[in-house]
Design goal:
single chain; 154 residues; alpha+beta; 2 domains; five-stranded antiparallel beta sheet; 7 strands
Length: 154
């Protein structure tokens, strides 16, 4: 078990380092007052390349497929046995809507999900329904959610 814990800790430490590096670049963008119309993509791409050459790590562009800045993993409690466990709601996502806001802060993204009759409690084995939505606004920031976990009715 110790080996698994050490490996997990190393993985988390590496992820935290990548996010710190990303935060530093975001701070630089804020200091620079970057705007979509005047954003110098090459300047920041070259900065990332230089930092990576110096040993800093960032999110790998090839790993970005499926990447979500707002996690859809949640802890839920079974309404039958009361046991709590983690569920990845992306597995039950049926819609991702995006509406542009007029305040200039970008799109309002809502992830909708419904497990219907396909989620079985790993503890008691009874089918439960997990349904709701998670809102991301502005892009990259958690805003709100509405998740219900209830007994499945045929």
């Amino acid at each position: 078990m110790k080996e698994a814990i050490v490996a997990r800790k190393q993985s988390i430490d590496a992820e935290i380092a990548r996010k710190r590096n990303s935060l530093a670049l975001l701070s630089e963008l804020l200091d620079y007052n970057a705007e979509f119309e005047t954003f110098e993509t090459d300047r920041y791409w070259n900065a990332i390349v230089e930092k990576e050459a110096a040993g800093e790590k960032f999110i790998d562009i090839e790993d970005m497929y499926g990447y979500r800045s707002v996690s859809l993993i949640r802890n839920i409690r079974c309404p039958y046995c009361g046991e709590g466990h983690e569920v990845d709601l992306e597995d039950y996502m049926y819609d991702q809507s995006s509406d542009e806001r007029e305040n200039g802060m970008g799109p309002d993204i809502v992830y909708s999900f419904n497990s219907e009759n396909s989620y079985e409690c790993p503890q008691c084995g009874i089918v439960i329904k997990v349904e709701g939505w998670i809102r991301e606004y502005p892009v990259g920031a958690y805003d709100s959610e509405d998740i219900t976990v209830e007994e499945w009715e045929d």
